[in-house]
Amino acid sequence: MTVDPNAVTQDFPSPQPGHRRPGAARYLLPALVACAVAVGLGVYGKAHDPTGTAFNLAGFSSTGAVKSWLATTAFFFALVQLVSALMVYGRLPGPSWSAALHRWSGRAAFLLAVPVAVHCLYALGYQTYETRVLWHSLLGCFFFGAFSAKMLLLRSERLPGWLLPIVGGLVFTALTILWLTSALWFFRTFGVTT
What we know:
The protein contains 6 helices and no strands. By secondary structure, it is mostly helical.
């Protein structure tokens, strides 16, 4: 095969004068939404009068047991998220369906965390009476704010390769500490009950 050096080559269109590369504003909106969600949840949790209970399910000994098992299952799916993210980013070998596993385990973790958060906010409110509870309240608000930012960033184009893993890591870390300060504490204090 020979190449003709005089052949016509394809010319790429020059950028239009009004067209700019995406700037920092694409990061600002998710950050502002994250702050608004976190602060909004905290203000609601602190401002309203807690009801004491929001739901109870048959087969469980208490609302605390329901919340602890839901949170533990959400944490399990968060661990699946971590492992599948490492597969998607090529840090661990994984099957071709690692990306689908990552998406679906994230959806499951979020759906399991929502009723726990609703109960925490509605029935207990934003509490600060001891260090464990203060951290739990802070990180509960932070988790949903960071999660909101991550969902918005997923739709952004041309993100730096490090951004989603950092935000995902923050979401995972927040959920881990939430689990440690709630479900694990409950199981250690009251025993592994249903």
